[in-house]
């Protein structure tokens, strides 16, 4: 399970596009908000990249057999709707409005970091990760897997847990993991 710091960085990176839009919209009118928003977006991306480099090489990776697999990238499209918010909502032209948006983001962040939304991250999609809903042996129910390579049914894969029911595919590929299952 990632630390609260890692979960917050995943949240910040998932909203990095939102932060960059807020930066552009407020650059001339409310410069401190623009700078804070820019810093939050950049920080989230940098820490998430560091997290993605360090976690898959972690020694707590386990090998699992995939019994059923469905790509779930369509879930990310609904999540992107939040980026429309800065264009439709009120302009952040005062400290009071900036604080109100901050409270909203803190509330969303609290829900995000303690739920399966951790796997739904547009930034991860932009850098090549795909979201899969998978059933595996040894675990009951569906799990969510973030992977940069396709996941095939009836194959073994190496996974590292990053949250409750959320896994990151280990970037150290095993020789028997690649390719679709052979027809028998």
Features:
44% helix; 19% strand; 184 residues; elongated; alpha+beta
Description of the molecule:
The chain has 184 residues and is of the alpha+beta class. The chain has one domain. The chain contains seven helices and five strands, in the order αααβααααββββ. It has helices at 4-14, 16-26, 31-54, 74-80, 85-88, 95-113, 122-126, and strands at residues 62-71, 130-136, 142-147, 156-163, 166-169. It has a five-stranded mixed beta barrel with strand order 1-2-3-5-4. Strand 4 and strand 5 form a beta hairpin. Helix 1 (4-14) packs across helix 3 and helix 2 (16-26) packs antiparallel against helix 3 (31-54). It starts with a helix and ends in a 15-residue tail after the last strand. The mean pLDDT is 79.
What is the CA-CA span between the terminal residues? 38 Å
Estimated radius of gyration: 18 Å
Which ranges are low-confidence, i.e. pLDDT below 50, for 5 or more consecutive residues?
Answer: none
Number of helices: 7
The succession of helices and strands, N to C, reads HHHEHHHHEEEE
